[in-house]
TrEMBL record:
Protein name: histidine kinase
Enzyme class name: transferase
GO terms (BP aspect): phosphorelay signal transduction system
The species this protein was found in: freshwater metagenome
InterPro entries: HATPase_C_sf, HATPase_dom, Sensor_HK_TwoCompSys
Lineage: unclassified sequences, metagenomes, ecological metagenomes
Amino acid sequence: MDETVEVAAYYVVAEALTNTAKYAEATEVEITAHLSENGLELAVTDNGRGGADPSTGSGLIGLQDRVAAVGGELTIVSPSGGGTTLSVHIGLSTG
């Protein structure tokens, strides 16, 4: 795996954990990662209060930019009162 993909994945997890600790009031966080020939799938899910809004802070916007820079996509699902999931897919070059 390319080092830039590793760095992007690291920052996704670090920022998600930081946001969970600061804002989510969560009691649990689950991190999953799956690497295959199709790419890297990464998800960070908490059981906190939800309501994360990328437009209100630079952290989530920065993550979206960092993931996009390596050809990936970041999806944030965070219904109010229902926890938050950050999901990332980064395709891997085979050449």
